[in-house]
Each structure stands twice: as C-alpha cells, then as structure tokens.
Amino acid sequence: MSNTHFIVFANEKGGTGKSTTAVHTAIALAASGHRVAALDLDSRQRTTTRYLENRAATARRLGQDLPQAQYEVLEEQSEEALNAAVDRLSAEADVVVIDTPGRDDPVARAAILKADTLVTPMNDSFVDLDLIGQVHPENYKITKPSFYAELIWNSRTQRAKVTGRSVDWVVLRNRLQHIESHNLRRVGAALDELARRVGFRVIPGLGERVIYRELFPKGLTLLDLKQIGDVGIGHIAARQELREMIAGLAIPGAGAETAKVA
C-alpha cells in the first residue's frame, strides 16, 4: 500500500458530479498507463460501478480494448470491509480511486483518512459552498468554516499524526458556466478566501455540458472520442477541460502522460 496513491472523492452533498468526475479521473489515469482500481462505497446507487460496468459492456460490444479500471463495490458497510477491499485493490494498483456516498457516513469518514489526494467536487453556487464555509448575506465574505471543513481538517491532522504523510485537499468547481457572471466571481472570491483559511486548493472541474450525462449508458469518457463519434468543437473543448482537471489534481506521474492521451 505504501506505493499506492489514494484519491478519495468526498462530499456530503449529492448532485455535485462526484461519481462522474471520479470515473473520468480513473479512466484518464488508466489511459495514461497507470494501474487503476476504483472502489465504490455507495452500495445503493452504485453510480461508479454502473458506469464502469457499462464501459466493459461497450468494449465487448465493439470488440475493442478500452482503458479500464478494476472496480469493486463495498457491499458490507463496515470499516473492516473497507480495509480489506483497500488491501486487495492496492496490491494490484498504482492508484486507487474511492467514490464515497453523498451523505455523512462512518465508512466514508474512514475512507477520507486514507486519502493522499482528497477531492471535494462542488457545483458553482453558494448552496454548495455552504457545505464548507458560510458567507455573509450582504458582502459575501466568509464568516466561518462549516462543520464539514472542520471534519476534513481533523481527518487530515489525524492522518498526518498516524502516517506522517500530508493530504492534498482539492476543491473541484464542477458545472462551471462558460459565461462570466457576478455569482461566478463572488463564489470564486469566497472560495479563494476560504482556501487560505482552511488549507485547500481550488481547481476547475468539468463544465455544465449535456455530453457528460449522455456518456453514462455506454460508459464512455471524453477520452473516447473515436467511440463517441460525431465529434464537434464542444467535445474537444470538454476533453481539454478533463485534461486540465487531471493536471490540476497533480497526481504523481499523471500530468504529462494524460496530456498525450487521445
């Protein structure tokens, strides 16, 4: 496990594009030559698992080898089962991507303690920002970090004490609008202020594009442009967003290779 890099996608709020981002990250890293495993902690919705199952089915139907991650869903919701799954997957993987449920969950908290890179996707709104920090209703300045930010702070501190390794906390701004607005600037300014106080990095994620929802049934990603077909300028721009997101995550050895993919 010591040489395996753990990327944990965690957010107690649903609907932030967490699973979509987790799958795109796993496939991008697999496409760049990493041995990747994905662990889905949401045994009810199984979005990550279903996405990767759809991908495997598409590869069989097309008779093509598509970059793929080994995947597993955590059926038994216990810390013991989590540790056993992590041990199994990390024995064969350079990178393990863990997708947590969109709710407060004891197993998800245990998974956060394993993160080398902790990714918190959020939609670009004050509704989502409230999860990690509260803002003043008039000047939109941060008034205080939220309970979730304190939880992450404590988890990072605990991990550092136990392992001596730091955690790179990345807040991912998903569903960014492509038109500049007052709200976008205000959310960005509040995030930058909170980042300095709490200690996370902010990077752009995946934009608000219909293509991300359309890819799910086939299990394809924006690195599979040949399989998607009918490639337009929007798809190429979206693929560039993905490449920039992966580079922004700064996973060891991932940036340069991923930029060459597809």
TrEMBL record:
In Swiss-Prot or TrEMBL terms, this protein is called AAA family ATPase
Q: Which InterPro entries match?
A: DNA_Partitioning_ATPase (IPR050678), MipZ (IPR015223), P-loop_NTPase (IPR027417)
Pfam families reported for this sequence: MipZ
Q: Which Gene3D superfamilies match?
A: P-loop containing nucleotide triphosphate hydrolases
What SUPFAM superfamilies does the annotation carry? Answer: P-loop containing nucleoside triphosphate hydrolases
